[in-house]
Amino acid sequence: MDTALLIEKSILVVLLFLISLGAAAYMTYFERKLAAWIQDRVGPDRAGPFGILQPIADGVKMFLKEDFIPAKADKWLFIIGPGLAMFTALITSAVVPWGPKLHLFGRDISLQVADINIGILYVFGVLSVGVYGIMIGGWASNNKYSLYGAIRASSQMISYELAMGVSAITIVLISGSLSLNDIVAQQSGVWNVLYQPVAFLIFFICALAELNRAPFDLPECESELVGGYHTEYSSMKLGLYLFSEYTSMFVSSAIMAILFFGGYNFPGMSYFSGNTLAILGIGAFAIKIFLFIFVIMWIRWTIPRFRFDQLMHLGWKTLLPLALINLLITGLVIAFKNGWF
Amino acid sequence: MESLTNRKKVVSDKPMTLWEKAYLPAIISGMITTLRHMLRKRKTIKYPEEIREFAPVYRGQHVLKRDEQGRENCTACGLCAVACPAEAITMTSEERKRGEEHLYREEKYAATYEINMLRCIFCGLCEEACPKEAIFLTDRLVPTYFERDNFIYGKDKLVETLDERIDITKRQHTGKRTQL
Fold first, then answer.
1. Is A198 exposed, middle or buried (0-12, 13-18, 19+ CB in 10 A)?
2. Contact residues on chain B for A39, CB-CB shorter than 8 A
């Protein structure tokens, strides 16, 4: 491994880290603004012009709050919980191809931290680990509401991961690769969503459930569980939990854009080349991510929360069979096309 | 029975059709509703910068008026304090000395005059009771404070200054009493 590659990747990692955190911070602002607009309000507008300094003010406030650990809590797990949630939310972005190759200083720079050939598997693996942050935090708090929130989160994540995985397999079947880079490159003509609208719908719904976003925000359902798994958390530990939610929302939007909406591909790509193409590609990808985030927030402020049995019913009796049927049909079509019958 | 309005709605509990069970059409129509709200014009009045237009008879912070020559109208008769249903007004009176004619219109004046703004209900009965056209409610707002003491307004805050007269021409009781 040469030094230049090491430097290049380090810069990319730091940049990604900062961008993810910055995006998450401004998503909190955007979410509050959007909620206000939907409810015919103005939203935060005091800190700076249009309130754009609000996330910074919120961050400072979080740091200045008392960092409290309950007496009966499992101290170490209580501290590890939010860190783990944040960690898993951040590392997913390592396999995301953010754009076509950049050509700088006589080198081809790949805008992907790690081009591993099992990209999708990695994403799903990290998503499954993601439940530990919530589970450990909720359990270590030694509080019934926290524990209920954690249990709900884990059962919900496990239930929806199935349908999500099955709908992702259809994409793997179409593209014939588990690498996210290949999946994006192969969508330069037609985006996967046109081949697999049902799979996309299932994936999107499951992603909402995985993110614990409304209408599936039962783990932190404030009308029943006070604050859910982060009831006992305060100060920046709470901040990390809230932050990790927004970071994973950012990364999930990126994954959805990659799997179904062509990643950094955009119509009329063939007219550009080199660094112009790379920058436009990054821009197109950013717009897609933003649109996904917008829709996720829009849904949150429109649809009321599910009841828990309705949630399980939807996951196991509707989405999973639908995903399986979709997978079966996709498999049959591919088999016919390849002349295996 | 014939209904008086057309607002009657017959509810039914018939099972949902497959289309309704899919929920997606309902969700989309709901999202269109919220989108419409998103694009709507905001009706918020951003308070410190913009101030809502007051009604002409708005009853806000009191003012103790001076006459055209700059003399205080109040004669400390105490009718406002008696009229006050919240018992917010207290005063002490004093006799006008020789040489103070340019300060006070009547021979007796209020040495102190205090209104407790936490007690005051802004009903305007003091204004109605006043025979000297001395006290009026204005369209100014009483600000908030952290200490209770600050809400007790003395003459320093209530009496209008000579160079900054408070306009009370919109008040409903203005000038009515002199016509009697």
1. middle
2. 37
CA atoms within 13 A on the CB side of B144: 2
What's the pLDDT at B179? 46
Which candidate from A34, A45, A303 shows the least CB-CB separation from B30?
A303
Give the largest CA-CA distance in chain A.
68
| Interacting residues of A316 by C-beta distance below 8 A, sequence separation 6+ | A159
pLDDT of residue B180: 44
pTM (2 d.p.):
0.77
* Domains in chain A, number: 1
- What is the domain extent for residue A155? 3-337
Report pLDDT digits (tens) over B21-46: 778 888 888 889 888 888 888 888 88
- Output the pLDDT for position B92: 92
DSSP B80-122: HHHH-TT--EEEEEEEPPTT-TTTBSSSEEEEEEEEETTT---
Question: What's the pLDDT score for residue A81?
Answer: 86
Choosing among 3.30.70.3270, 3.40.50.10140, 3.40.630.30, 3.50.30.80, the CATH entry for B62-179 is 3.30.70.3270
Tell me, what's the pLDDT at B152?
92
- How many residue contacts between A and B have a Cβ separation below 8 Å? 30
